Amino acid sequence: MKNKFTLLATILLTSVALNAQTIKGEVTMGASYANDVYYGLADQSTQIVNRSDWDISFYRKSNMSTAIRVNDGAGIQVYEASNDISKWNSIDVANIESWNLLYNSDKDWQEGAFNNASATYGWGNYNIANHYVNGTIIFVLEYASGEYVKLKIDNFAAPLGEYNFTYSKLVNGVWSEDKKVNLAHKTNPNNLFNYYSLLNDKAVNPEPVQSKWDLKFTKYVTPLSTNDGSIVMYSVTGALQSDLIKVAKTETGNPTDDTAYIADINAIGYNWKTLSGWSYVVNPTNHFIKNTSTNQIYKLVFKTFEGSSTGKITFDYENVTANLGTTELARTKFEIYTNPSQPKTITLAYNSQESKSSPLNIQIYSMNGQLVHQESYQPTSSFTNKTIQLSKLSAGIYIVRVQSADKVESKKIVLK
């Protein structure tokens, strides 16, 4: 076990040493920002996709999530037309001014426009008997082209990881025949979302696998304050980040500590540039980008932004993990595991390169949040195993939380 930790730290630190040079990054979104560009910092990979290729997307990484987003960057607006699903056949776009306009969150991928409707889960309600979320809302999508589509999410079969939805297009003032679609999470298993084009009647895949991108350069809608203090929803151009990424920003120097990194997907956002006359001025802000999957940290500074004529953006970045990632990479590590041959016991593997090891505070919680076990342990060496006997606890699922100074790890365990 000790050799495994040492080898891991050696590999990671060697890797960052080899990647310390400044890299010149460049993406081009095209005239009027017509394309989205996915960018991977580790290997400078880019994938350019036509933003109009998709209309709605379904978060597919968890069967506990019901997130459905609209392609607001393409100018598609989504309305809650009715909370009475029986009115499906009587929806009339002449009433659109009375409907609620819904928006995606620009901070969380798992809060889409459809999740902001009036049902318990936005677009539907949960059935505890079969763990389905059943749709109760009728939506209408309005396209920049003037086309309309009505849509209802029939259900999300959580145990199966499958969405079922129905839609119809308005053609010459008449709704077309309903089309029913099944879309499963297992499709595109390494992606953040599954995507569907309602106008083209097909599932599409405009997103690269998550290991290949960190930043998505795109258009999106965000709330902005006006001079009179009111809030308007406005389309902007900038960078959203993968849900594996956290970002800290500084005007000078390094982040103060790990709490400076935030997971909001618009942490980089759009305001690293300012319109001055007919051109843009780029702010010299330092963006420290941490990939929580690989534990690599990059320092990125935008250099130029050419605006809507080309959509070209340039930036410099470098891998700074060796300077900023020591604590995350090598100084303190925990592993928590159970042993089938020893019922109701867990083993904590601890490895630290601190000159003086901090005490470990070990807490175990039931799934309803009750603290059921707690103890402290002072490691006597930089590497040790600690076995904890939990025979007094009932069989079931628990959360183990281990803290050493400012390092915290939590893991779900099953006691049999």
From TrEMBL:
This is T9SS type A sorting domain-containing protein. Residues 336-414 form the Secretion system C-terminal sorting domain. The keyword Signal applies. Pfam families: Por_Secre_tail. Keywords: Signal. InterPro entries: Secre_tail. Residues 1-20 form the signal peptide.
